[in-house]
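Prompt: Have a read of the protein record below and flag anything odd:
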Amino acid sequence: MNAPADPHAITSLTQLEALFGAVAAPSLQKEVDYLHPAYQALIQASPFAVLATVGPGGLDASPRGDPPGFVAIQDDRTLLLPERRGNNRIDSLRNLLVDPRVALLLLIPGVGETLRVNGRARITTGPDILQRFSMEGKPPHCVIVIHVESVFFQCARAIQRSRLWQATPPGRPDVPTPGAMLQALTAAAIDGEQYDRELPARQKSTLY
């Protein structure tokens, strides 16, 4: 049975713009097509980003993180993002092979504003560039070279509403552990308790 049509669905740009109203001038003026020095300062302070890509299998958004400045500024229109070891799904990289479009959302702990970068990317394994991003003597698998097309900061309302940077009580919140999730998702083919016991040491030894 087909679901009934939503009589309140927004289906046109005219409806959408009427719902939200006009864009404030600063929201348009803050968008530029290069890495302004003010934006470079945010990039250099950020230890965490979310990388979004698109490919034949759909969309992907995945976390990236390292010490602040891990997203390196090559020039005012180029960013370098090292691709370190993970779970080897390489969803983002698979997408880049067929569609170079990327988006980055950079966050800085304690700062409400986030930085959004849109552009096009390619993957390189040049020896010099890999060595530049070595950590603990280990280079990344590859580096994503991003040609910047659009940059702007996002206002702090989402961070303020979520209270993301407010102090949290010690200990893990009451949510499933990785082992518990895997045990549930695999009908207990994976022993969740064993997975959780071994995970901290495995992560520490394979961080880079």
